[in-house]
């Protein structure tokens, strides 16, 4: 492979803001795997946001990229899986599997699409220093005749349209809006774009914690909600505290610490065989590798209000943000019933041409 922009390259990033700004280029924020695609003739490489190779996991997408992209290019975009009228991040996670036979089977049953939104190189020319509006025009021209599984991300310069997207597209599994200055060059691994994501709050039970890698302070809080059968289900974590706050939380939660997991609602997680059926706080994954995921059980007696963007099945899609303790709430009152469900929106109305049927 011999391209004017060669891997490894980290993608340009966005910082979070509260409102959609004026006078920018706007796109929907896709909920998938951020990916850079490098194509040089028959050679195609797909790299993740952290530059890890994803090529082997998406053989059907490699074929589609080879058929739909210009012969020599570097494209920034998002790998997504469509199930029915919306994106399915759980199905996308399932595509990362070590077994070759499983990869081939999933390529047929849950095929992936690629939504392109930026162009880093075309032919023999690097576009890293080219203003965004020129890169976008070149990308739109290069993909003017594309079809599944490669799509051009819808874009607008009208902030009113962007606000409509922000409200409407969530029902199709998208999670906000990205705004980019029109004259912005491509700056790898720099937070020079902005993103506006949906945020809601929920009252959750704190039923466990993990220690921070630096020592005996709180690394993250394990959050739970009660289901209709009265079982406390793990829904995610709250993390990203200042170091002083981590120490304060450790002191606040010390009286709730249990000597063992016996009698805890998540007692089954201590048994290795339980990890095979569902994702649990102490279970390793293909993403965590050798990372220490051991946890300290806490008596489920304290309630915390957290902010979250949206759900992935029965869990928070991203790390929840600590807002405040809720001493006025009873843990048993913290159920799934409090969560909002966005109005449905058919993904086929966003991507044109229509995605292949599932």
UniProtKB/TrEMBL annotation:
Molecular function, one GO term: DNA ligase (ATP) activity
UniProt catalytic activity: ATP + (deoxyribonucleotide)n-3'-hydroxyl + 5'-phospho-(deoxyribonucleotide)m = (deoxyribonucleotide)n+m + AMP + diphosphate
Domain of life of the organism encoding this protein: Bacteria
Keywords: Ligase
SUPFAM superfamilies documented for this protein: DNA ligase/mRNA capping enzyme, catalytic domain, Nucleic acid-binding proteins
Domain annotation ATP-dependent DNA ligase family profile: ranges: 114-241
CDD domains (UniProt xref): Adenylation_DNA_ligase_LigC (cd07905), OBF_DNA_ligase_LigC (cd07970)
EC number: 6.5.1.1
InterPro entries in alphabetical order: Adenylation_LigC-like, ATP-dep_DNA_ligase, DNA_ligase_ATP-dep_C, DNA_ligase_ATP-dep_cent, DNA_ligase_ATP-dep_CS, NA-bd_OB-fold, OBF_LigC-like
UniProt similarity note: Belongs to the ATP-dependent DNA ligase family.
NCBIfam families membership: PRK08224.1
Protein's name according to its UniProt entry: DNA ligase (ATP)
Species this protein is from: Streptomyces johnsoniae
